[in-house]
Amino acid sequence: MYLLKEAGKAYTINDAYVMRQENEVGSIEVGKKADFIILDQNIFLVTPAQIHKQK
What we know:
Elements: H1 2-10, H2 13-18
């Protein structure tokens, strides 16, 4: 689970910081732009091999 959390940060807030856009994107906060998805299962509760199968 630790690696999954770190991967999530790498593709969200850390990317925004590198692009110097952390005040605009990278986390879900009031006033920030956001794209997000809704999954049918909690990816932190399935095995890593099952993550790609989520809808």
